[in-house]
């Protein structure tokens, strides 16, 4: 029940990627730049609200936060399902993200406070692993549901949400509230929404508006201004949306850089392969789901291997190796993208290797980020890393839109190949940043004498 937040968010991500083209057909929209807001709108709001929501949940209680977040997410899913207009759908995606931003820290807080002390680590691992299960099932489930109607990808959340709400009311304890009653910096969160949203707007609309036109330059200027104001408030506010002090921790700082690059590369890779199968090969949604599923299916097993390796191999090495495998798998697909592709020979091997790499790298990046932080700042640190990942997702989707909009003389095959090479490069950079996750060992001080 408490793993609902991770399960729904992971399921939502993979299902919506597979269903993006059918959604566009359903709402009468063919422009990828506008359809991308179905993904970006969710990621932007989730990223900006996650840290403030976590603070509010600590203040008012984890059970109340869990019920509120799950209720909002479930109701917004119904609204998304009945939307017949793109921008109405995007609006409900905003609400879904707001619910998820409250639900996630509330559920983790309940896991930490209700688990027996000896089993806390195990319960947290189960909570986190539910995302891998959803990632493995999401593409196929999405493909099956879209065969009926795209609205079913959102309606699926209703029975899951209602069941979890019913169980939560009856079974969850009230929980304890934090003695810290200070309100988080909500204005700082709003500024972060504006900063990320304006940047995404400038990127995805740049090819259509023109890179040097007034609207594009205004979007980038607004983004930079809002980001500077957000950082300024974060440096001065008692409860900032981004605790800049945490960035003084070397491992935490590198983990955030690695997370942004990793999620950006993964967003390009996942959405790119989905669009390729549907728009270039003209696969159906269920065929696309089955084609995408093998990669995510490798994540759970590889994550278990990564946990074992981390006992004997430096953390940074495990994460960097995983990122390198993702980069190699993506490069394999990119190398073969310009010719007549064969799925079994040209896509599947790279996709499987990439899936193993994701399982090694991503859990390691997230779990090691807060290893050196004080215990009372671990939850805030985890939320910031999750926020960094969502920012990376927005950047990745936006960059893919830009690349596909600039098709050039090589046509669609050239554009997708360029997108996958870009993804491989960003993933390689993530691997280099991940090397910083290994804590420095200070040499022992020689005894005087």
Mean pLDDT: 86
Residues in β-strands, percent: under 5%
How many helices? The count is 17
Our count of domains comes out at 3
Under CATH at level 1, the class of the largest domain stands as Mainly Alpha
SSE blueprint:
Layout: H1 4-27, H2 32-35, H3 37-60, H4 62-81, H5 86-114, H6 120-148, H7 152-155, H8 157-171, H9 186-209, H10 214-236, H11 250-280, H12 285-292, H13 294-309, H14 315-336, H15 343-369, H16 378-405, H17 411-434
Helix pairs in contact: 1-5, 1-6, 1-11, 3-4, 3-5, 3-9, 3-16, 4-5, 4-8, 6-12, 6-13, 9-10, 9-16, 11-12, 11-15, 11-16, 11-17, 13-15, 14-15, 14-17, 16-17
What does the model show?
The chain has 449 residues and is mainly alpha-helical. It folds into 3 domains: 1-184, Growth Hormone, Chain: A; 185-238; 245-440, MFS general substrate transporter like domains (Growth Hormone, Chain: A, Up-down Bundle). It has 17 helices and no strands. It has helices at residues 4-27, 32-35, 37-60, 62-81, 86-114, 120-148, 152-155, 157-171, 186-209, 214-236, 250-280, 285-292, 294-309, 315-336, 343-369, 378-405, 411-434. Helix 3 (37-60) runs antiparallel to helix 4, helix 4 runs antiparallel to helix 5 and helix 11 (250-280) packs antiparallel against helix 12. The protein starts with a helix and ends in a 15-residue tail after the last helix. Residues 443-449 have low confidence and may be disordered.
């Amino acid at each position: 029940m408490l793993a609902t937040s991770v399960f729904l968010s992971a399921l939502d991500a993979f299902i919506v990627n597979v269903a993006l083209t059918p959604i566009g057909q359903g709402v009468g929209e063919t422009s990828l730049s506008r359809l991308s807001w179905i993904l970006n709108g969710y990621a932007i709001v989730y990223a900006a609200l996650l840290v403030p929501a976590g603070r509010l949940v600590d203040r008012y209680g984890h059970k109340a936060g869990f019920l509120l977040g799950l209720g909002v997410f479930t109701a917004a899913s119904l609204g998304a399902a009945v939307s017949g207009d793109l921008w109405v759908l995007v609006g409900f995606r905003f609400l879904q993200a707001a619910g998820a931003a409250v639900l996630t820290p509330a559920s983790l807080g309940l896991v930490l406070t209700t688990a027996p002390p000896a089993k806390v680590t195990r319960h947290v691992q189960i909570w986190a692993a539910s995302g891998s299960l959803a990632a493995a099932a999401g593409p196929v489930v999405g493909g099956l549901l879209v065969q009926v109607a795209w609205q079913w990808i959102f309606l699926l959340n209703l029975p899951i949400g209602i069941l979890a709400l019913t169980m939560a009311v009856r079974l969850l304890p009230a929980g304890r509230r934090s003695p810290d009653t200070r309100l988080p910096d909500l204005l700082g969160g709003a500024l972060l929404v504006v900063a990320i949203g304006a940047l995404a707007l400038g990127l995805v609309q740049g090819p259509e508006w023109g890179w040097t036109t007034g609207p594009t330059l205004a979007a980038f200027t607004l983004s930079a201004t809002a980001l500077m104001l957000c950082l300024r408030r974060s440096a001065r506010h008692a409860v900032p949306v981004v605790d800049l002090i945490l960035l003084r921790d070397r491992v935490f700082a590198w983990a955030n850089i690695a997370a942004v690059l990793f999620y950006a590369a993964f967003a390009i890779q996942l959405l790119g392969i989905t669009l390729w199968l549907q728009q270039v090969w003209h696969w159906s949604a269920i065929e696309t789901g089955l084609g995408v599923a093998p990669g995510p299916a490798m994540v759970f097993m590889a994550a278990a291997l990564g946990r074992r390796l981390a006992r004997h191999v430096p953390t940074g090495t495990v994460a960097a190796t995983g990122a390198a495998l993702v980069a190699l798998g993506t490069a394999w697909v990119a190398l073969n993208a310009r010719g007549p592709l064969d799925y079994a020979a040209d896509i599947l091997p790279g996709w499987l290797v990439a899936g193993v790499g994701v399982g090694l790298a991503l859990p390691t990046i997230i779990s090691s980020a807060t290893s050196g932080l004080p215990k009372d700042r671990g939850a805030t640190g985890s939320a910031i890393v999750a926020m960094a990942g969502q920012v990376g997702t927005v950047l990745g989707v936006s960059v893919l839109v830009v690349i596909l909009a600039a098709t050039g003389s090589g046509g669609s095959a050239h554009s997708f190949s360029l997108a996958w090479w870009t993804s491989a490069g960003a993933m390689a950079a993530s691997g280099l940043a991940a090397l910083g996750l290994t804590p420095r060992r200070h040499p022992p001080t020689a005894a005087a004498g």
